[in-house]
Amino acid sequence: xxxxxxxxxxxxxxxxxxxxxxxxxxxxxxxxxxxxxxxxxxxxxxxxxxxxxxxxxxxxxxxxxxxxxxxxxxxxxxxxxxxxxxxxxxxxxxxxxxxxxxxxxxxxxxxxxxxxxxxxxxxxxxxxxxxxxxxxxxxxxxxxxxxxxxxxxxxxxxxxxxxxxxxxxxxxxxxxxxxxxxxxxxxxxxxxxxxxxxxxxxxxxxxxxxxxxxxxxxxxxxxxxxxxxxxxxxxxxxxxxxxxxxxxxxxxxxxxxxxxxxxxxxxxxxxxxxxxxxxxxxxxxxxxxxxxxxxxxxxxxxxxxxxxxxxxxxxxxxxxxxxxxxxxxxxxxxxxxxxxxxxxxxxxxxxxxxxxxxxxxx
Length: 362
Prior knowledge:
Layout: E1 6-8, E2 14-15, H1 47-53, E3 79-81, E4 84-90, E5 97-103, E6 114-119, H2 122-143, E7 151-157, H3 164-171, H4 193-209, E8 214-224, H5 226-237, E9 244-248, H6 254-257, H7 259-270, E10 277-284, H8 295-299, H9 301-304, H10 306-320, E11 325-332, H11 341-353
Parallel strand pairs: 6-7, 6-8, 8-9, 9-10, 10-11
Antiparallel strand pairs: 1-2, 1-3, 4-5, 5-7
């Protein structure tokens, strides 16, 4: 299949610029409209981070625009990401229409196919991780290490972003027996994680394999917050479904720390014969520091024990580690819950594709 580009318009709403066979065309092709906000005004150096945060404006440029140069119009022309495409997939397991963003590495696929990172909350995090993968080969060459660039598959939903929080509140939380008081006061439905994982493994993976050459034995699941909770649920209940599990700031607090009940069963099952898996746990060092400025959510920080929960879980898993079961824990001292996702993406990519580049690696 030929490559195209998934487009992210300035207001944050995605627009399709490549038709993928077998998928739903979101918008007419946009190849004739290039995303140049100002000709000759320099490169857009802060596009990628602002795209991820939904804050992109036309004033972001490398150098001031001379007074004699006409200021470009903000006309809604999309900023495109090269070698990306998107499609929508209706799931019989979740009953939802899932939007899928895909970033394809440059060059031919390895003989076994491309490794794959499945990225949760792709609507927020896909542009940043996509950009990080583009510099990975250069970074690896600079340090003289090997790295195979993965395909990035960002998972989100069709429809208005306002509906996405409700969808992820159901799809990313484990199917606990009692969901009456989970600590989540906004999600109307919860406990759909198994249905979501069935969608990913039984519907999305075959759809991706029909479009690209991928290595089914080299896959990672990466997520932050509720996404991190889903990663832990997958590790504890389906440890062979991926070979790498990257959980950033996981919401272990959810439902009276129910996921730790799943952990106990996992440890009992694999204590004597550890499963083959690689696990990265990350958290921001400020995530459980109460902040009055953040309102009620900020005051929940100490109660939810984000840092302590992650530290304790990492230590317990590491004690079981050895052989084919590898556990690493990274804490980002100056980050809270709303900034720790950024270093998580960077370190998670290195953990999966070039682990020797991680701090402390031999």
